[in-house]
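Structure (tokenized):
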């Protein structure tokens, strides 16, 4: 951190600044004196717009229209995950988390005293896959909730509709909550390529919101960070059954009171005018993904598959048994910042995560540094 010579691909963050019209909305709100406390659940205007946004993305498949009463605005998607867990999980509760995954998703239930059970995806020639039958066996009637991040950080794995339907029906029978971490739902590369169709909007990844009813125990956590290039704004939202809104409102009061109103004004601008940003981001990330994976797979000893979503290449390095030490050496000896696979669970050991939300020039230089480093390191192969 702070070394100018390091190429930082370790964070899940686009390298482009937040679009000017979104930044200007926050500036205008500040200049107008919009600096006071606001409602715990978020500005009514933003909640209404997010309800309409969710209905546009997911309502046609489920014949469901979301309302403001289903929406809560939060101080980041990270805060949303904690709030939801505080609302539905207690000490000793059994929570199943599909991994590898961003570590916060596993650690949050642990912080609250829950029994966190990890369920690993499997890596093979077709990339990362879910053993659905084994997952259903793991989701016993004593399970309180299952946490699923799709598209997945770090693997890019994206759950399919049939698997979602099977999981939802199973969870309905046993009263299990589904917490869907949908932070990357718009960063989905199965959408058409630029030029194939009119690119006014892009379909999101398959979502549990597409198939859930208003009565289902399904909660979607989302963030403005990825799709609209707003990582530093720390703004997120929750789509939830109406029955939870009161408890979530209290928890926000006890945690942060409210999201800053001028940040929420930037969020309104993003929802109102941000679809071209999503289209641009997905197109750019697809090109960067293809560029990086084509070069990584040419390096002897590296095994990688093309991720269908998110913004990461999660690749295996032959002979690698200590990914943390490996990544520390990459920083100190090669000036290359990558994330160690062990950070995302035991099944991530031997892998390394590379965020490809960067220019091709920087990616190419990063690959060159990786090749030089691998040539000088003694890995058992």
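Design, position by position:
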């Amino acid at each position: 951190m702070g070394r100018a010579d390091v190429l930082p691909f370790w964070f899940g963050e686009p390298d482009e600044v937040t679009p000017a019209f979104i930044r200007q909305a926050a500036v205008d709100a500040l200049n107008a004196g919009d600096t006071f406390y606001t409602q715990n659940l978020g500005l009514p205007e933003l909640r209404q717009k997010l309800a309409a946004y969710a209905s546009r993305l997911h309502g046609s498949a489920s014949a469901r229209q979301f309302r403001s009463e289903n929406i809560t605005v939060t101080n980041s998607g990270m805060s949303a995950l904690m709030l939801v867990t505080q609302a539905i999980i207690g000490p000793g509760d059994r929570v199943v988390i599909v991994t590898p995954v961003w570590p916060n998703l596993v650690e949050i239930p642990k912080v609250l005293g829950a029994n966190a059970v990890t369920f690993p995806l499997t890596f093979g020639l077709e990339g990362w896959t879910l053993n659905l039958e084994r997952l259903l066996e793991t989701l016993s009637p004593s399970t309180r909730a299952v946490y699923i991040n799709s598209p997945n950080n770090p693997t890019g794995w994206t759950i399919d509709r049939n698997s979602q339907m099977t999981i939802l029906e199973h969870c309905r029978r046993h009263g299990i909550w589904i917490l869907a971490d949908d932070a990357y739902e718009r960063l989905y590369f199965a959408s058409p390529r630029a030029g194939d169709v009119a690119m006014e909007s892009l379909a999101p990844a398959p979502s549990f919101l597409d198939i859930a009813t208003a009565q289902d125990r399904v909660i979607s956590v989302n963030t403005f960070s990825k799709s609209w290039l707003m990582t530093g704004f720390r703004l997120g939202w929750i789509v939830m059954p109406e029955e939870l809104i009161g408890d979530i409102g209290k928890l926000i009061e006890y945690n942060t009171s409210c999201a800053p109103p001028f940040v929420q004004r930037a969020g309104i601008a993003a929802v109102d005018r941000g679809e071209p940003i999503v289209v641009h981001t997905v197109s750019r990330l697809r090109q960067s993904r293809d560029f990086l994976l084509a070069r990584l797979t040419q390096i002897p000893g590296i095994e990688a598959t093309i991720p269908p979503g998110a913004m990461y290449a999660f690749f295996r390095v032959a002979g690698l048994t200590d990914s943390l030490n490996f990544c520390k050496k990459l920083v100190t000896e090669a000036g290359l910042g990558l994330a160690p696979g062990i950070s995302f669970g035991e099944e991530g050991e031997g892998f390394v995560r590379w965020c490809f939300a960067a220019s091709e020039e920087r990616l190419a230089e990063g690959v060159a540094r990786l090749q030089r480093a691998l040539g000088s390191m003694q890995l058992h192969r």
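Reviewer-requested clarification: Residues 115 and 125 are 32 Å apart (CA to CA). The mean pLDDT is 94.
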